[in-house]
Design a protein that fits this description.
mainly beta; twelve-stranded mixed β-sheet; two-stranded antiparallel ribbon; 0% helix
Length: 384
Amino acid sequence: MIRGGYGIFWNFTPGGTSSSKAQNPPFLQSTALTTLPTGYGTNLLLKDGLPAPPGVDPTRPASGTTRSIFDINFRDAFARQWNLNVQRGFGRNYLLEVAYVGSQGRQMLLKGDPNEAPAVIGVSDSNINRPYYKVSPALRSVGQVQSTGILNYHALQLKFQRRFANNFSFLNAYTWGSSKDYNSDNDGTVTILNVHADPSYWYGPSDYDIRHTFSSSVIYEFPWAQQRWYGGWQVTGLLLLRGGLPLTITQTQGVQSTGTGNRPNQTCGGLAANPTIDMWFDASCFNSPADITGTYGNAGRNTVRGPGSFNIDMSLIKNTKIGNVQTEVRLEAFNVLNHPQFANPNTTFGNAAFGQITSMLSSPSCSLCGTTERQVQLGVKVRF
């Protein structure tokens, strides 16, 4: 069987802080009112009520260090999505599926900063070259909501499954995927490095891009004595293998003329030949630009990857029915092999801990459950 589909979808993009334009002057003003005990020289008395708020002055200049604005040419985002998959059945219980999935996002929200100073060699003060310095000397960052972002995703998906029959089923799935964009964090603060650069300097694997993912799940019910009080046993297992997340190498020394951070120069792949938690990156692949005033490093965005993940969960289940009472006892073990799940290494070149992994991943089940070491739990359910 062959199946396929294609669609175009539009989206109203802004959200969160990007939609809060009413919080900019002249619409947002604050007035501090303070009352003190009698005799302390206050001119505000609660018995007289509160004074009227100040009127809105549309000519009032911007103040403060940060502002948020819209690009006047902003357009809604849209995505083209398509897929093509081939399915083939084997016998009565087996199915093999091969699929290609693609997506293109265009006019995606991107947070720029038109007040960022351009890089100028020899200039060490980032404020004097800011475009709006003469208008508002105290103004620093102007987060501009733009519709210039792009997203490209392609994936090969394989699935082989056996439907539940004769007390046994399994599902195996593998995905090779590639997601690339200009910036994966498109709200809040400006996270693009060097807004004046060619977009190819930003384009790279998405922050959430995982190239290889394999999962396998198995269910088996023991066939003997299923209707007896001592029967009804079931065992399940789940295996997950995935590659690491992409990481961007930065450096301790920023660009003085822009007031922004910087990336080092990169001359080779970056991953150590035999990566360990003490040396995940090959430091010899990186070096800082000789000029610190107006030169950005050539290292791309998300050019290296952190450690992947290997995990096995298992459960033993006992179903018992006595009259109208149905009981279920579950013994579940997460990360049953107690395999270490490492967090990402330090990615700041020039830092003493560069390339070192110093922590474990936190537990995905809850924020208070510690890290991902083996966890065992027992549960009982009674239905009547």
